Amino acid sequence: MRYAIVNKLLLFPYYFILRVRHFMYDTSILKSRSFPVKVISVGNITVGGTGKTPYIEHLIREMPAAERVAVLSRGYGRKSSGFHIVSCEDKVAASGDEPLQIKRKFPHAIVAVDEKRRRGIEKLMALPEGERPTVILLDDAFQHRSVKPDTNIVLIDSSRPIDEDCLLPVGRLRDLPDQIKRADKVVVSKCPPEMDAGDMFMWEQRLNLATGTQVEFTSLRYDEPVAIFPEADKRYIYSKFVMMLTAIANPQHLRFHLLNQYKIEDHLEYRDHHNFRKRDVKRINKWAKNNPKSLIMTTEKDAQRLISLTTLSDEVKRRLFYLPVIVTVLGRDS
User: Fold this and answer.
1) Is the pLDDT of residue 226 over 90?
2) For the chain, which residues make up each domain, given as ranges?
3) What is the mean pLDDT of residues 2-12?
4) pTM for the full model?
5) Contact, 75 vs 113, CB < 8 A?
């Protein structure tokens, strides 16, 4: 209750703008456009950190082989603009880190970026018939109501329930909590693998969703460490010490995982989608030199940017690894 009061009173200007905007779409004053292709939106109500990218990768894995899958993202953090089809040889500046990660992991999928979702879909549908996608996954599009998807999937971090959070800038909510009613499927992400049926039932009661809304519970599983550079020395994986290097919204899940095996010596933490500059590289090089026995662990998303840094020291390159993340659906994959 107190969170709702803060949202409605203390944050009234933002709350009011969101409420009016949704009213205009709900009453068709503003139009949502449908497309003659299956469109699945994957989004959230909070700012970052719910695991959208691993879940999109999970959906790609689940797609029938006959489907031609496209992922359309805004390409947050890129320096380019307009519509762009991502290639495995791209730089982060052209495509953004997450689209590049998806493309490199799934070369068969079409990955495109466009800050305007409608235009992006139109461009994808204008591809030659043999290349045109049969299903489009919209990344981070729950708030972009100008497109009407066939399925709206909303992710909620199990460690940060939306009914215990406030709107920006006080909290991390980017949208009104009651907008979850528009979801066709709610995914409670980053759950502990041991979550039981009772915990799931309590979550379903708490969400208070409309009849027919599907609820799914997922956990994140880390795969074996992967070297970013060819000169990496895999013996560092067996060190007792690790340093974390991250530029993501919420590195806590990675931290908890590493604590099972390592002592965390230090953590260089940057804002989400941070573009590493010369001064950052100097800091990383010095930091590694002062901690010569430690493995350096980063995320797969950060690896897309780090691999292009030509001035990283040989010491860093020998010890820098990332952990791939795989979504498991509790009750099915676990």
Assistant:
1) yes
2) 2-217, 222-324
3) 71
4) 0.93
5) yes
